[in-house]
Design a protein that fits this description.
This protein is α+β, with helices and mostly antiparallel strands and about 130 residues long. It contains 3 helices and 8 strands.
């Protein structure tokens, strides 16, 4: 069973799409998710306290600043704006695919876990996540 989830983003941040996935899964199996982009990531992360997501965003923005920051002067891929190459670096550091067990039509996530697209670009995007349940 396969589908594609489309998640609208509006700049850097974590976008929860757990409910969309949960309403799609059926039966028992292993769900594989793959984000079809090289400047965004997928995470299983806490969904109870939004400050966790804010702190993650702040950490990665500090770890990998825009290419306009003097510390990033070594970058050569600059054609797509100051957020593009840093977005590729962040996506290389974080997962772009996830696997989640499904039992009796329910995601086997922990109590405080959710599925997130981590958007690394500053402009709005429509991110596609391919899903396969087997």
């Amino acid at each position: 069973m396969q589908t594609t989830f489309t998640i609208a983003t509006n700049g850097p941040g974590l976008y929860d799409f757990t409910d969309e996935v949960a309403s799609w899964v059926r039966g028992d199996g292993l769900l594989t998710l793959l984000i079809r982009h090289t400047s965004a990531s997928l995470l299983v992360q806490e969904n109870a306290d939004p400050r966790v997501q804010e702190d993650l965003l702040a950490y990665f923005q500090r770890l990998v600043p825009p290419s306009s920051d003097p510390s990033m002067g070594y970058l050569t891929h600059l054609q797509e704006g100051p957020d593009d190459m840093p977005a590729h670096i962040k996506a290389a550091m974080m997962p772009v695919s996830l696997q989640v067990p499904v039992q009796a039509g329910r995601l086997r996530l922990g109590t405080w876990q959710g599925l997130y697209v981590f958007e690394h670009r500053t402009a709005p995007h429509r991110r596609e996540v391919a899903a396969h349940l087997a």
